[in-house]
Write a structure and sequence with these properties.
2 copies of one chain form a homodimer.
Chain A: H1 4-31, H2 34-41, H3 45-51, H4 55-72, H5 75-79, H6 84-101, H7 105-115, H8 118-124, H9 129-139, H10 141-146, H11 154-170, H12 172-182, H13 186-206
Helix pairs in contact in A: 1-2, 1-4, 1-7, 6-11, 6-13, 7-11, 11-13
Chain A binds a DNA duplex through residues 1, 4-5, 8-9, 12, 33-35, 43-50, 53-55.
DNA sequence: TATACATTTGACCATTTGGTTAAACTATAT
DNA sequence: ATATAGTTTAACCAAATGGTCAAATGTATA
């Protein structure tokens, strides 16, 4: 074994990181236990502190990565050269599929941000929303006009799109409880939602047509 | 003082309850400290355990009440004798106004339910969703037909309405961060949302018209 | 092989935390 | 006044928890 050090290094760190992600996602910052993370990573608790000095730093590393991964999913939508309708359709498919694979992520991120709003600042520092905003307005000037979308209503529409996509996962616990009552299957509901959401939003926009 | 016992009893219990609500809403079950609650209630920690035996029972009492209060807000919508459009408009006004007064509630309830899904069962046990569901379908039979709403799409529409209403508060931490970047004022955005949301949903429904 | 350096571990520590207990305090009824 | 019962407190406890440390183990280099 020639270059074992770096590999092994990463192996252990990755094991820790993976275990920490699982535990933090499930229990949150306050509910997570370092011992639990160590156990799930199959290592000694002291080793956690060797790689990540404190629980806070470990959490920060995990949060930064998963929250970043989630926000990233919004990016390609703005870059692709598609019509507004295509973008909306593309976004819902992409984003909901991502959350199907990471169903705990939305609730986790939302919660931890509300618990400690300072964290989000670090995340958003690298994103220039103003620029994205301007690009979007410029790129879809004609469509915004066609759909009678004022600048003031853009935040409303954007957050509505995010809401429709994220909420089912953020409220998974409640919805599953209610759906059980109604004989609705959550997974099928989610699968269906990819198209429903796009239709719904596009329909709403069309109804604004001048 | 004649009947001081009961009054005093309630006074202390209420003080505890109020303080506990504040602390739990802010820090969550795991992050909350009994000592902190006691301090904020202006009493001894042992007295907490005198009124509510354990942290878990205290949390349960608080959660049951606030979560119930939140779910209750959905009820009057189903009972009132209004058209579907009127109901949608009424709901958004009512519900968003309620959350303006209790901005931490949505994130708190969503989070704790995801952290401990068993809790929701106790809450929903008393609500007969099947019955509400049937009533709704019967009451708005003609409108569902007019808007081409199949039974299958009702959960989609209902959760979409809830999403549009709740999400801005559940994601308040993030949104405020982003809005700051864009020069958007959160409170104004929320005020505006009461009407926007109704217009948006009704617009989407209208676009389904046969 | 000896040296230097990173990795891993078991034992340990100080603090925090939910919870208990016995005593003190208060008000009412007799 | 005194007994009774509910209320409040200070002092205390055991367990859990994040974190430390010195020793041990492994690994590459000279």
């Amino acid at each position: 074994m020639v270059n074992n050090m770096t590999e092994n290094d990463n192996q252990t760190e990755d094991k820790i990181f993976e275990a920490a992600t699982r535990v933090f996602e499930e229990k949150g910052m306050d509910g997570a236990r370092m011992q639990d993370i160590a156990n799930k990573a199959g290592i000694n608790k002291a080793l956690l502190h060797y790689y990540f000095r404190t629980k806070d730093r470990l959490f920060d590393a995990v949060f930064q990565k998963v929250a970043g991964r989630m926000l990233m999913k919004f990016a390609p939508v703005f870059e692709k050269d598609l019509t507004l309708e295509e973008k909306i359709r593309f976004f819902f498919r992409q984003h909901i599929t991502f959350m199907q694979e990471n169903p705990r992520l939305p609730a986790f991120v939302l919660n931890e941000i509300n618990r400690n709003p300072a964290r989000i600042k670090k995340l958003l520092k690298n994103v220039d929303f103003k620029k994205i905003w301007m690009m979007l307005i410029e790129q879809h000037k004609d469509e915004l006009d066609k759909y009678n979308i004022t600048e003031e209503s853009i935040p409303q529409i954007m957050t509505t799109i995010a809401a429709i996509s994220v909420f089912p996962f953020a409220a998974k616990g409640i919805l599953e409880g209610i759906f059980e009552n109604l004989g609705v299957n959550f997974d099928a509901y989610i699968e269906q939602r990819k198209e429903f959401a796009a239709d719904f939003v596009i329909g709403a926009l069309k109804s604004r047509k001048k």
